[in-house]
Amino acid sequence: MRHIILGTAGHVDHGKTSLVKAITGIDTDRLKEEKERGITIELGFAHLDLKNGRRIGIVDVPGHEKFVKNMVAGAGGIDIVALVIAADEGIMPQTKEHLDICTLLGIRHGLVALTKTDLVEAQWLSLVTEDIKEFLKGSFLESSPIIPLSSETGEGIPEFLSALEELASGMEETSTSGIFRLPVDRVFTMRGFGTVVTGTLISGKLRTGEMIEILPGKITARVRGIQVHNQAVEFAEKGQRTAVNLQGVDRQSIARGALIAHPGIFEPTSRIDTLLRYLPCASGKLKNRTLVRFHTGTVETISRLILLDRDEIEPGESAYAQIVFETPGVNMAGDRFVVRSYSPIRTIGGGQILDPLPKKHKRHSGVTDAEFEPLRKGTDAEKAAVILERSGTSGIPMRGLSVRTGISPDTLDILIKELILKREAILLDTDEMRVVSPSIYKKIRERIFSEIKSYQDRAPLKPGIAKEELKSAQGYLDSRLFNLVIRELEKDGRILVEKDILRTPDHRMDLKGDLGELRKKISEIYLSSKLTPPTIREVVERFGKNAPVGSVMGVMQKEGVLVKINEELYFHRDELERLQQDYRGLLLRKGKSTPADFKELTGLSRKYIIPLLEYFDLIKFTMRVGDHRLLRDREGK
């Protein structure tokens, strides 16, 4: 069922609260000061059951100019507005300002309640009605019904209810599958229950027992209970006036302007990208870096307007802008906002959020055409492409993409799968459906491949670059992206992965020129020394510390020319193979041998005997049993 919120709007003392009481029987003025002064100061709430069985939530807003910020807090989430105009006074300043606010917040449905008709003559009523029609021309209320009524006598109330029911019945069903968000407009404590918050649930669902996060402070709590229109329920959904009893958090931790959401979805930000509309009725030009009061949902914060492609705008114009907050806020793409001048305080404009988590933009950089235009009026795929590019090498999970594009999770789930199939998004993580821009992926892929080749050029005597060394050279790079690039480069045959070493297929540790000459000399040393080779340190000393002896010997070891016995000793392959055959003959004759037998066979000192015997054990040529060694494979050669 489509849950509908009706909100009042209009000048102070034009009868908004009296109208709500007349149609619901509920007096929404609950404060002592409101009773004494006879005006609404805080938001009031009621509900109305229509003849067709549908229940409408009602938000009664204050009309006094001092409390317009409270009015804006209540207007967020309204589906239908009742613009209340008193017949004895007609159109007044807050009538105009409230209509502007409703327009800026994207409200598209409403009706006009022409109240206090019992105080005027019929001819005057007719004149006021004509004034209202003229006033509403060009607005979203231009074709809406104007219903004369008196909350005192009850005249016109049935007609108002009938018009309201017809309007509500004609509204389209909307999905409740969006990301759960509840902007807090009231916080209080109930004895025996603890902390309670209320608000209009503007997206998604909330269930009893769930964990929630209070933003921007990122405080977690559990939902102890939920009420909708003073009735306990197991869950609440989009469009319902909702009261939530929270467990594990005190009253002082929450205030109007907080957002209740499921944990881990939203990130507070100090700036947003917007399309800003400057009202035609505003006075003077709006200049870059103007200080304003920013309102969205139930939030009010001091902010600064940064015009991105111009230095000022005229009344009635629109422009792309970043809005920088004095205190961090939590928003979603597609949200509507209102801006009011810092001083004197009056509504001057508003608009729509295009990206709630952008980076700082350089002014006059062309970013508005390249990125803002698709975010404003592009297809879902075009919006996703911009945000993917902005998300960089970390990519973005599906829920984050939903927050930054305003696309519902259900729609986005289908879209992401299509983009992945067409390689217009690269999947990094299936659990959270994290994706990265294909252009960014391509850049990283080519950068990593170039780094592998560059390393080979810098270190031709090494087999390749260690995987961890390559990863570190990329700076901060998401591990999932790095590993995916390596897997695909290997799959495409552009690199080879040997344990933790990466190289291109054509990489050879060739020893040419001076290196080839050094290789030859080292080989001669080990051949001539037969079974009594020098230590590595001694070899290095022969050629000097600047000669790349260790690197050349590493290549020779990889080629199999030199065999590493331990950290100090290498033997030439030919000499070691001859020794192995002689030792095999000894073991076949005697069945077993001692170190003394090996010494008699070779004439070597203990410096070489022990490492050689341990080497033969290590390569499983021999097996040690007590003080003897046996041949492992007597049939082998």
Structure description:
It is built from 19 helices and 33 strands. It is of the alpha+beta class and 637 residues long. It folds into 6 domains: 4-169, P-loop containing nucleotide triphosphate hydrolases (Rossmann fold, 3-Layer(aba) Sandwich); 181-261, Translation factors (Elongation Factor Tu (Ef-tu), domain 3), CATH 2.40.30; 269-370, Beta Barrel (Elongation Factor Tu (Ef-tu), domain 3); 378-436, Orthogonal Bundle (Arc Repressor Mutant, subunit A), CATH 1.10.10.10; 440-503, Winged helix-like DNA-binding domain superfamily/Winged helix DNA-binding domain (Arc Repressor Mutant, subunit A, Orthogonal Bundle), CATH 1.10.10.10; 509-637, Winged helix-like DNA-binding domain superfamily/Winged helix DNA-binding domain (Arc Repressor Mutant, subunit A, Orthogonal Bundle), CATH 1.10.10.10. Strands 7, 8, 9, 11, 12, 13, 15 and 16 form an 8-stranded antiparallel β-sheet that branches. The protein has a 6-stranded mixed β-sheet with strand order 2-3-1-4-5-6, with helices on both faces. Helix 5 (122-136) links the parallel strand 5 (109-115) and strand 6 (146-148). The longest helix has 21 residues, at 438-458.
